[in-house]
Write a structure and sequence with these properties.
The protein is an alpha+beta fold and 346 residues long. The protein is 21% helix and 23% strand. It contains 7 helices and 17 strands. The longest helix has 26 residues. The chain is globular.
Length: 346
């Protein structure tokens, strides 16, 4: 079985039923919002192997306090931070965002401590800190001075990131309201998929805060591991998260240097900016595309009907320029046209 792929196992009552399913669905039927093509294979039985999967791995230092607020408190908190058409809110590609105390800058995952906002954290949040203090958890702060509100609709998410070490104290605290969500944590080749229930408080402390990135994959449903170790799916609904932070004054002294900005050498003023830009492009663009190329090609195998119709409308003498043709899945649609000229740029 190919690793990091999604699978569904169907048990048939007879070989004939299995053959009918294969003939009817294999390479023909589509599934899901992106019309992905289904591919089937025969198995005598399902292999029984022991493994640590992403849904059972929990990063060290990650704490989830379930039912941290009740229904009435949830309504009160949502009202205190609700998005209004009359105020200036930040609309990002994957969600709507607003800030309190200081603006969280997503380009750097940092704040400007010299430019506080007039809009402070609402007093309706004050009861959270008294309740949290009663848990006697390891924390470097008692009260936050920065809050970010993210509003997610189904299909929206946030890219993997780590909040800048030198910007904020430990921990990062997030209150999840209205809907459950699966949050993904990554460290090297390890991935942990954590179910964060609605009305729960999530604390990223220690290793989970400093040495794992966290993010939410944009999709409409999540696959969830139940308490009896079976998998199920859950459709996403509108979700609002309140993320609380406390600004750090000075360099970070954590014991996790891999992602720590305080341990990295600053760029000198005399450095060649073009060389730096080229290096950044290689690290953050070329290398990324190299890593996703095989998956990109594998999931883009069927021409879109409208595009195929467009290509077949050309005559043999026509010339077509295909700029950014990806894996070239349209090159063989109009064989006569391809035999004359299709120019591809990668």
């Amino acid at each position: 079985m190919i690793p990091n792929k999604s699978y569904c196992f169907l048990e048939c009552e007879s070989i004939k039923d299995a053959e009918l399913l294969f003939q009817s669905l294999h390479g023909k039927s589509t599934l899901g919002q992106n019309d992905s093509v289904l591919y089937l294979s025969y198995f005598v039985d399902i292999p029984n192997e022991s493994f640590v999967d992403s849904k059972s791995l929990i990063p060290s230092g990650l704490v989830i306090l379930k039912d941290f607020v009740d229904g009435e408190e949830e309504i009160l908190l949502l009202k205190s931070v609700e998005f209004s058409e009359n105020e200036e809110n930040q609309t990002l590609k994957h969600r709507s965002v607003k800030h309190f105390g200081y603006e969280f800058m997503y380009g750097t995952n940092n704040v400007d401590p010299e430019n506080p906002l007039d809009k402070k954290i609402p007093k309706e949040c004050d009861f959270l800190w008294k309740r949290l203090k009663e848990k006697s958890l390891p924390m470097e702060w008692e009260f936050p001075d920065q809050m970010t509100v993210n509003e997610y609709l189904p299909g929206q998410g946030i890219p993997p990131h780590v909040d800048t070490h030198s910007a904020f104290l430990d921990p990062i605290v997030s209150l999840s309201l209205q809907s459950d969500i699966v949050m993904e944590f990554r460290k090297g080749n390890m991935k942990a998929e954590i179910l964060v229930p609605k009305r729960s408080l999530l604390l990223m402390t220690g290793e989970a805060r400093y040495d794992w990135t966290h993010g939410i994959t944009p999709r409409h449903m999540d696959v969830i591991l139940t308490e009896n170790r079976t998998l199920t799916t859950a459709n996403r609904s509108k979700r609002t998260s309140l993320t609380f932070r406390r600004l750090r004054r000075g360099a970070c002294s954590c014991s996790f240097p891999r992602l720590c900005d305080s341990r990295k050498e600053p760029i000198k003023e005399s450095v060649d900016l073009e060389e730096v830009a080229a290096k950044l492009e290689t690290e953050n663009v070329h290398n990324v595309y190299d890593q996703i190329a095989s998956h990109f090609s594998e999931t883009r195998h069927s021409p879109w009907p409208q595009v195929a119709e467009f290509l077949n409308s050309f005559d043999q003498s026509d010339v077509l320029l295909d700029v950014g043709c990806g894996n070239g899945k349209y090159l063989n649609v109009n064989k006569e046209l391809m035999s004359v000229s299709i120019f591809c740029f990668y």
